């Protein structure tokens, strides 16, 4: 029985439990609700909650754990194939699962009978051909070991699923029955239900912690694996980045960091002056009508997905820059070889960050009390003198915070650099040259059918870790500054 | 109540500094000031009193065109300072405000040092040719603001670190530093405690020697204590204007009397 | 004290009516400063306009497509040599077997319109999309009785011909092309005059599936749109309840302690973690550890849920906070429990704000690409419509932004037009969502 059906049955049980619990509560006071401790619906809700919540939580945990446990149990069967390499092990295991899925599909479509699937031998039948008939393509022929492992996997997983069905439904029933039995006029149903809800609320709030934990653990775990295969000092101080999946790669992060920083600096050089001046104009000079028009217009830029900016960089800005700075371009300098370059990505990223800088600065400038402006204007200062000498110095910490947040955005931005910056890691000063960034390399090392245990793939996790630490540091620092600033005027 | 004090204080005939004729102020559709005409004398403290929302602050802010900063505000009529129409298109509000200084309800020192707070006005108006001159201006202004002795040892400390009363006196010093001729004060003591209020009031009395001071206050006692002339505003109208002693002891208009005796307001 | 008469302006300040030199200078500085502000704003708006112009001018052509109407003689000797009329028998002829039929059809159509061809007959079908064979075969299989008749088909022109009609391909650019040459274009010109070739509204782009690299004229965004749709379902049904529950706890119930602080710090930091890091999380946890299927909208949805949660929590808390405490007090005052006061009064009042925040969060998730790259939603050719709910969630699919990225990476420039067109579709969705959010806010906004 599929998990979806189990969940539906549990929910049906809960619905039935609701009706039952409500009825039983009413019966216990002969229909006079005033003698009940809580409203009748709470008694129903109590039964429904007891039936559904533990059972569904169990279901989810089971679904997560079952494949992991099955892997553990089946893995020893193919131990001889690839005892040494953890990576090959995972490849073989994914083959096993594929074959098992294929057998399932074959049985579903009636190509094989259940018994045939169970007893099939790889030397007597062409498993690959059979499975490709039902739409499961395999990369290579199936070895005897893989097939028997797959068959065992199938058997275990069907046992597991059966067990899951039984246990989950049993838990749901048990919950419903205990709760129904406890339903009585003096039972404090509301308190129990509210307590339960509170626990659920706390659980939801803990998702944030779980997510962070998930990020940190998945990064650390794989980064440690990477450093076991590749020396950390070469990673942190290496000046060349040239991965080759055959081995013997140099995986120095410095060229990537350089590209990231270079692009971010250009982006900020575009976004900060434009965003800041736009914010000053909007908050200090613009009439309400201009503000009502221009502010949302700028924010449209913020709502545009980064893939659009990436395409804009690749197909519009890049060729445009080449026509100016490229070989035989307007400027006649011939600095630019191709459309993808630090300048392209930086410029487009700058455009993306304009609304980010301007709306943050706008908030911060508006937080400077009006009395401060009045004081300056009352002394006969012009508006610009007021802005430059009173408002901006007062808003400075907040604006620095906003710029740091923008910097963290720029460093973590992916699509624009993947499409606009190029793929070659270089330590160069020429902004018209193609360079690459940390994020772009995370993408290129982890896409495709890479072997997840090679240093070339694992390095992506180390890069992710580096990126996470840098942006986290920037964010915490920036948020701290902004908060300090806000407290000053509250 | 020392109502006796102001009676002794005879008002000489002084030069007229500010003349307002038929001033109307609108906030969008709201008619905030209705046909106010008033003459304000030089070297005098003039108090604007009235219940809150009566337009006294609005009128005060017309006198140095601070209302220009509010886009929906519209002013009609003539306001003349030294016989020059300040709403003349040739008048630059920046120059006007150097001549007509203003002190606000809440002390609003800039987030700068005490020295820079006071030096700000002279700097932007180019009143000092060098550092020594600027130092002199700052010291003079702080002395006039009656705060020199308290801050002379910590001129580089931030102005926001002072107490409320000190901050307000700093703001007065800041306003005085640009050498204005008229000083507008918008309820300068409303955010201060009684002791600080007394100090500021004393200062206002001294400032009368050099400036034409216009003060908006919601406190009748304060008006009685510091001013020579009083104008009573009610619902945007100037109800009564005259010698402070007269207004408080023998008001002509029944509305003034009601306000002074506490029946409206 | 100087003695002044009213008629003499003060010596200290001079007449107000004359602007002194210093003030003039200061006013000039003021004008300059204001000009910088206007300039910055205009530059920002200029970028917006440039971006939108680039999108519309490059992408709008994707919504029309060139078709050739061919009179195809379904030669019975080739398609059904035994004359059985049996569907299974006809199905034995693969699409390859139709190439000759198409070549004849092109030649016939040209002859019928008196178009001279300098080219050998074998080079003519290159003007027709490779998808034509499959199209004709499918029609024949659906109705075997057509065999032997002459039927008029509207088949896709090849992407080069399409590009020629749209101005992307010129005779010069074809000079070194392997597939099509300038002579083909002469024929196309004549066919155009004869009304055989025609540019038409291309619904297939919006509803269709992706095609292989060699057939850009056939590629559509429909399947990946469904992929995005299923992802959004996951995001909506997970992030809304979890986000609202978490916000209610933090805003209404959480005690002031270290644990609550820790949760809050986590949320504000997660909101600023680069999206690619969420992709790494998805890859490591959902695919490597939990063995969920790669490229599945379910996994994409889970990753985007985790990414959207902080946004939803932040906006939900803001709208919960905007409900005045007096409402809570009133409910508690008549004897409601805390939980009842929240669920009966605060939550319904905050609902418009919560929905607005959720829609904006969903719009963000819809446009997000980077995490999807890592869980394998790129590089996959989304050529099959999912059949049914389970398949929609679990079968490999692409998503709109991932599909756009995929097209942008392909070598054939004809795919760029598709990518821009895909962006228009994506932006239409985002715009609709944002407009709904704005209307919702306008309609239900409450001032306390």
Features:
heterotrimer; A: 490 residues; mainly alpha; MetI-like fold; two-stranded antiparallel ribbon; 18 helices; 1% strand; flat; B: 265 residues; alpha/beta; Rossmann fold; six-stranded mixed sheet; four-stranded antiparallel sheet; 11 helices; 10 strands; DUF3333 (chain C)
Structure description:
- Chain A: Keywords: Cell inner membrane, Cell membrane, Membrane, Phosphate transport, Transmembrane, Transmembrane helix, Transport.
- Chain A: Belongs to the binding-protein-dependent transport system permease family. CysTW subfamily.
- Chain A: It is a multi-pass membrane protein.
- Chain A: InterPro entries: MetI-like (IPR000515), MetI-like_sf (IPR035906), Phosphate_PstC (IPR011864), PstC_N (IPR022182).
- The complex is a heterotrimer of chains A (490), B (265) and C (448).
- Chain A contains 18 helices and two strands.
- Chain A has 490 residues and is mainly alpha-helical.
- In chain A, helix 1 runs antiparallel to helix 2 and helix 17 packs antiparallel against helix 18.
- The radius of gyration of chain A is 31 Å and the shape is flat.
- In chain B, the strands form two sheets. Chain B has a six-stranded mixed sheet, with helices on both faces. A four-stranded antiparallel sheet of chain B has the order 2-1-4-5, covered by helices on one side.
- The longest helix of chain B is centred in the middle third of the chain and has 14 residues.
- Chain C is mostly helical.
- Chain C contains 19 helices and three strands.
- In chain C, helix 1 crosses helix 19.
- Chain C starts with 20 loop residues before the first helix and ends with a helix.
- The N terminus of chain C is likely disordered.
- The chains are: A mainly alpha (490), B alpha/beta (265), C mainly alpha (448).
- Chains in contact: A-B, A-C, B-C.
């Amino acid at each position: 029985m599929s998990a979806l059906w189990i969940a539906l049955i549990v929910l049906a049980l809960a619905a039935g439990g609701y009706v039952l619990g409500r009825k039983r509560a009413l019966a216990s006071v002969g229909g006079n609700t005033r003698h009940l401790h809580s409203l009748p619906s709470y008694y129903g809700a109590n039964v429904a909650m007891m039936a559904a919540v533990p059972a569904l939580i169990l279901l989810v945990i089971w679904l997560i754990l079952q494949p992991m446990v099955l892997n553990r149990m089946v893995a020893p069967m193919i131990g001889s194939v690839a005892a040494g390499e953890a990576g090959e092990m995972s490849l073989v295991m994914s083959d096993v699962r594929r074959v098992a899925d294929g057998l399932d599909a074959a049985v579903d479509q009636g190509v094989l009978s259940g018994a045939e699937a169970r007893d099939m031998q790889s030397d007597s039948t062409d498993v690959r051909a059979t499975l490709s008939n039902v739409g499961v393509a395999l990369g290579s022929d199936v070895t005897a070991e893989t097939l028997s492992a797959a068959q065992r996997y199938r058997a275990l997983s069907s046992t597991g699923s059966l067990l899951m069905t039984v246990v989950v439904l049993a838990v749901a029933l048990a919950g419903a029955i205990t709760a129904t039995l406890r339903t009585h006029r003096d039972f404090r149903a509301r308190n129990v239900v509210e307590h339960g809800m509170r626990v659920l609320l706390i659980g939801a709030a803990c998702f944030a912690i779980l997510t962070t934990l998930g990020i940190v653990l998945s990064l650390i775990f794989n980064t440690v694996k990477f450093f076991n295969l590749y020396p950390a000092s070469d990673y942190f101080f290496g000046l060349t980045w040239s991965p080759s999946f055959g081995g013997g790669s140099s995986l120095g992060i410095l060229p990537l960091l350089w590209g990231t920083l270079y692009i971010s600096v250009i982006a900020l050089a575009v976004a900060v002056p434009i965003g800041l001046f736009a914010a000053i104009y909007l908050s200090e000079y613009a009439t309400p009508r201009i503000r009502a028009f221009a502010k949302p217009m700028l924010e449209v830029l913020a709502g545009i997905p980064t893939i659009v900016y990436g395409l804009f960089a690749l197909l519009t800005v890049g060729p445009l820059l080449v026509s100016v700075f490229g070989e035989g371009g307007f400027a006649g300098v011939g600095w630019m070889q191709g459309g993808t370059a630090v300048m392209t990505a930086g410029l487009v990223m700058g455009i993306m960050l304009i609304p980010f800088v301007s709306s943050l600065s706008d908030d911060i400038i508006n937080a400077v009390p009006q009395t401060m402006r009045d004081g300056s204007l009352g002394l006969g200062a012009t508006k610009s003198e007021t802005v430059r000498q009173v408002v901006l110095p007062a808003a400075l910490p907040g604006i620095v915070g906003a710029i740091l947040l923008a910097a963290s955005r720029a460093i973590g931005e992916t699509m624009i650099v993947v499409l606009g910056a190029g793929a070659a890691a270089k330590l160069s000063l020429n902004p018209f040259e193609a360079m690459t960034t940390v994020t772009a390399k995370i993408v290129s090392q982890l896409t495709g059918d890479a072997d997840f245990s090679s240093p070339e793939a694992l390095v992506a996790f180390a890069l992710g870790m580096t990126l996470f630490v840098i942006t986290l540091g920037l964010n915490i620092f920036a948020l701290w500054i902004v908060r300090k600033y806000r407290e000053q005027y509250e | 109540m020392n109502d006796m004090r102001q009676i002794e204080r005879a008002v000489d005939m002084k030069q007229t500094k500010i003349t307002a004729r038929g001033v109307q102020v609108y906030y969008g559709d709201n008619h905030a000031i209705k046909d106010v005409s008033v003459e304000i004398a030089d070297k005098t403290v003039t108090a604007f009193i009235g219940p809150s929302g009566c337009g006294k602050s609005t009128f005060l802010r017309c006198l140095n065109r601070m209302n220009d900063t509010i886009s929906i505000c519209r002013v009609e009529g003539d306001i003349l300072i030294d016989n020059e129409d300040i709403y003349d298109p040739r008048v630059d509000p920046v120059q006007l405000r150097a001549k007509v200084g203003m002190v606000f309800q809440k002390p609003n020192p800039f987030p700068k040092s005490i020295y820079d707070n006071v030096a700000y006005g002279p700097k932007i108006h180019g009143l000092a040719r060098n550092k020594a001159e600027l130092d002199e201006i700052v010291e003079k202004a702080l002395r006039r603001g009656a705060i020199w002795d308290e801050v002379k040892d910590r001129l580089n400390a931030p102005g926001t670190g002072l107490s409320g009363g000190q901050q307000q006196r700093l703001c007065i010093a800041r306003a005085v530093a640009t050498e204005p001729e008229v000083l507008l004060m918008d309820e300068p003591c409303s955010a201060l405690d009684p002791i600080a209020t007394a100090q500021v009031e004393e200062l206002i009395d001294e400032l009368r020697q050099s400036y034409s001071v216009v003060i908006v206050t919601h406190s009748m006692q304060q008006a009685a204590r510091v001013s020579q002339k009083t104008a009573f505003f009610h619902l945007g109208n100037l109800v009564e204007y005259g010698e402070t002693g007269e207004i408080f002891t023998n008001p002509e208009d029944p509305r003034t009397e009601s306000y002074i005796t506490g029946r409206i307001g | 004290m100087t003695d002044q008469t009213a008629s003499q302006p003060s010596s200290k300040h001079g007449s107000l009516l004359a602007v002194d030199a210093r003030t003039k200078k200061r006013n000039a500085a003021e004008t300059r400063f204001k000009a910088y502000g206007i300039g910055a704003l205009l530059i920002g708006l200029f970028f917006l306009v440039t971006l939108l112009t680039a999108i519309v001018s490059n992408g709008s052509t994707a919504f029309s497509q060139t078709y050739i109407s061919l009179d195809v003689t379904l030669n019975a000797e080739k398609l059904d040599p035994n004359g059985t009329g049996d569907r299974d028998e006809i199905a034995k002829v693969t699409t390859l077997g139709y190439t000759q039929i198409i070549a004849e059809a092109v030649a016939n159509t040209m002859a019928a319109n008196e178009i001279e061809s300098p080219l050998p007959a074998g080079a003519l079908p290159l003007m027709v999309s490779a998808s034509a064979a499959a199209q004709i075969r499918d029609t024949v299989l659906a109705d075997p009785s057509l065999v032997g008749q002459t039927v008029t088909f509207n088949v896709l022109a090849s992407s080069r011909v399409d590009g020629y009609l749209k101005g992307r391909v010129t005779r010069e650019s074809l000079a070194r092309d392997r597939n099509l040459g300038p002579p083909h274009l002469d024929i196309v010109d004549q066919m155009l005059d004869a009304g055989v070739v025609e540019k038409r509204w291309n619904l297939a782009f919006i509803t269709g599936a992706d095609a292989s690299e060699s057939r850009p004229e056939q590629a559509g965004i429909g399947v990946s749109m469904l992929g995005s749709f299923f992802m959004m379902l996951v995001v909506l049904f997970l992030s809304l309840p979890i986000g609202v529950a978490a916000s209610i706890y933090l805003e209404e119930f959480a005690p002031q302690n270290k644990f609550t602080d820790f949760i809050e710090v986590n949320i504000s930091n997660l909101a600023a973690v680069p999206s690619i890091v969420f992709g790494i999380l998805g890859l490591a946890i959902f695919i490597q550890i939990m063995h969920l299927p790669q490229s599945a909208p379910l996994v994409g949805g889970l990753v985007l849920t985790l990414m959207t949660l902080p946004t939803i929590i932040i906006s939900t808390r803001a709208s919960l906070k905007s409900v005045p405490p007096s409402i809570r007090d009133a409910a508690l005052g008549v004897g409601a429990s805390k939980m009842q006061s929240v669920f009966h009064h605060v939550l319904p009042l905050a609902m418009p704000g919560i929905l607005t925040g959720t829609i904006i969060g969903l719009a963000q998730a819809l446009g997000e690409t980077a995490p999807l790259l890592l869980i394998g939603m790129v590089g996959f050719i989304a050529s099959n419509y999912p059949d049914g709910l389970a398949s929609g969630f679990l079968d490999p699919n692409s998503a709109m932004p991932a599909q756009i990225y995929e097209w942008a990476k392909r070598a054939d420039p004809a795919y760029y037009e598709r990518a821009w067109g895909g962006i228009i579709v994506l932006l239409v969705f985002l715009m609709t969502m944002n407009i709904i959010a704005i209307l919702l806010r306008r309609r239900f906004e409450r001032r306390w």
